[in-house]
Structure formats: C-alpha cells, structure tokens
Specification:
The protein is of the alpha/beta class. The chain has 18 helices and seven strands. It has three domains: 83 residues, no CATH class; 165 residues, no CATH class; 109 residues, no CATH class. α5 packs antiparallel against α7. The radius of gyration is 26 Å and the shape is globular.
Length: 369
C-alpha cells in the first residue's frame, strides 16, 4: 500500500470519527424517544444493571452504534476499497442479454434450488458465456460496489454485511449471473469476475482471520447457491483488492493510530492555525495522522509564503483550515497548492524528511512563468 493510499484512508478515518463524535449521546436530555423499546427493555433491567447507567441511555447508544455500522458499511469500508484497488462504484442500466442466456440462467437457478447441481463457477460461466441468440431481453439494473477494469479483465464486487438476511442468496446468485452475462456481452474479449465481498469474519477468533467453510454455514442457503470461489472474506478480500499482503492489518493500524481517546483534541489542534508556530509538534502530528501532503506543504511553508506574499488569493488558500466544520479534508486547498507549486512529493511512495522536491527550483520556475 502506498503512502498516498494510507493518507487517503486516514482522511476517511478522520471524517468518520468526527461525524460520530458529534452524534454521540452525552446525557439523558438528548435521548431519543423510543417508548416501545423502553417498555420491552424493562424486562431486562436486572440484566442491564451494572452494564449501562439507564435504559434510555442504552437505547441512545444502540441507535448511535447503528449509525456507526451504517457509516462504516456504506461509506468508510467502500471508499477504502476504492482507494486500495483504484476502482470505483459503477451503476449499470439498460443492459441486455439474449433470451437463450435468460433461459440458461433460469435453469441454473432451478437446478441449484432443487439440489440437482452444486455451485460450480466454471460450469456456470461456460453455460452463460457460450450461449448465444439473436433475440434479446432487458435485465434488471444493477450496481457494482467495487468495479475494476483492466486490459484483460473486469472485476465486480458486491459488498455485503457479515450477517446477510436469510433467503437472499438465490436472488443474489441470479443477479450476478445476469450481470456477468451482460458484462461479457459488453466486453467479449475480457475475463469477467463477479464476487460477493465480506469485510471481516465475525466467527474468527482474530481480527483478520477467516474460515470460509464455517462462514458459509452462518447464513441460510449460502452453500446452496455459492461456492467458496465466488466470495471474498476478511483479509482475503482486502489483499485481493490491493494485490498485496497484510492489507487488512495496515488498515486497522491506521484506524488504531487515529482513533484514540484524545482524537477530538488532536483534530482541534489542526483547526487552530496558531499551533503552526509549534513547528516540531505540528510536523509530528501530521506524520502520525498520515497527512503527508500537508506535511510537505507545511515544511515548505516559508518559501511558499515568500513566493506568494503579493498574491492575496493564494495566501488565503494557503491559510485555509485543513478540515472543514464537517470533518471533511480540504482536498481542494491541497490540490490547488500542489498544482501551483508542483509539490507532487514523488507520489509519496517513499517519503522522508528530506524526500521533497527542490522547492527553490519550483520557486524559480514560478517566477519565470
């Protein structure tokens, strides 16, 4: 994983944490009204005693945790997957397949449902890819949460929760067969791969461990419709996306480094430009939070400011905060300054305190222009 990828993941960590800090229930006055939940939870008051201070606070914390789960699943994990794979999210509408392919897909699903066949990705691909016909039919629109296109292959991944709803796998398998058929018609000379992706294994005794055989027993009908080759689980998923090893460990390390009890204090430190006067500490904090482009800009700030001292718009851009009031990184500020001064920092692949571009050369080029 490159340093720029680590920085982009860190920015997503910071944004996610900041948003959850604002939503965290601090006292009973801010508890949401949930009379039915509260009435039912009265039966568990003895079991909850000593574990939570009150039932209303427990309800608020449960609601907050649900929001965190949603934010992780729909935003952080998906964006992190895009960062490390260089893929994106892709919607497909109005695609068509042959009616012969549609018939074959119906037969595959029926055979799996009735246990006449076991999931076999090679057999199924052969059936849907080699079936032809002139008569066409529309397929349902679909979205690939992670879409990667290379010269020779297409990879699509649908992100799933680690505890999918019972009975969904028949529909998922049918949708994937339709999607693979349509993608093959769009890209006849490319290999087509479509996976389900699960970010971690809740049954594992270790954070990054996984057991695909046991995981498949976790949900009803999973083994009926899918083989182990058709889904990626836990560290397997993250290593597949990055093309490297220990990827999930690296992501968790970034989170653990930033998600500390003094996170809000450290965030506020960056929002106060007066703290830039404490140069050594400012640089260390930027380094610890993986904000290496900001570190490059800050370490060159004297020469940058000297060069733009008569350019009020650029000075204003330079003096903007690193983050906005929603916790989002000020990417536009960084991009503008990097573009102006060509501070590419060698893609941040290998970076040391002396590993920056020659700022004097950049300043001379700027003056000549």
């Amino acid at each position: 994983m490159t340093n720029i990828q680590k920085e982009l993941i860190a920015i997503e960590v910071i944004r996610t944490l900041y948003s959850q800090f604002d939503k965290f229930p601090e006292g009973e006055t801010n508890n949401r009204n949930a009379p039915f939940h509260e009435a039912f939870l009265n039966a568990f008051s003895e079991k909850l005693e000593g574990k939570v201070s009150s039932i209303p606070i427990f309800i608020s914390l449960a609601s907050w945790m649900h929001g965190l789960n949603t934010s992780l699943g729909q935003s952080f994990l998906e964006k992190t997957a895009h960062i490390i794979s260089n893929g994106d999210k892709r919607e497909f509408k109005g695609l068509r397949i042959s009616k012969s392919q549609q018939l074959v897909i119906s037969e595959i699903i029926a055979d799996l449902k009735n246990n006449k066949e076991r999931p076999d990705i090679q057999r199924e691909n052969s059936l849907i890819f080699e079936t032809t016909g002139n008569s066409e039919t529309d397929i349902p629109n679909f979205t690939a949460d992670i879409f990667i296109e290379d010269d020779d292959k297409i990879i699509a991944i649908e992100s799933k929760t680690v505890k999918p709803n019972s009975g969904i796998f028949k529909n998922e398998k049918e949708k994937i067969l339709y999607a693979k058929s349509a993608l093959k018609r769009l890209h006849p000379n490319k290999e087509i791969y479509y996976y389900l992706g699960f970010p971690f294994d809740p049954l594992s005794a270790t954070p990054t461990g996984y057991n695909k055989s046991e995981f498949m027993k976790y949900s009803v009908d999973f083994k009926k419709y899918f083989s182990s080759e058709e889904f990626l689980l836990s560290a397997e998923l993250w290593d597949f996306l990055s093309g490297e090893t220990q990827t999930m460990e690296s992501i968790i390390e970034i989170i653990n480094t930033i998600a500390t009890v003094d996170f809000k204090e450290k965030f506020d430190f960056f929002q106060n430009n007066q703290n830039k006067n404490n140069r050594a500490e400012y640089i260390i904090r930027l380094q610890n939070w993986y904000l290496l482009r900001e570190k490059a800009l800050f370490e060159n700030q004297e020469k940058i400011l000297s060069n733009i001292k008569y350019d009020k718009p650029l000075i204003r851009i330079f003096n903007q905060n690193i983050f906005n009031n929603s916790g989002d990184y000020n990417e536009k500020r960084c991009t503008n300054l990097q573009e102006i001064f060509k501070l590419e920092v060698k893609q941040l692949n290998v970076i040391n305190s002396v590993d920056y571009p020659d700022i004097d050369r950049v300043v001379q080029i700027k003056k000549k222009s």
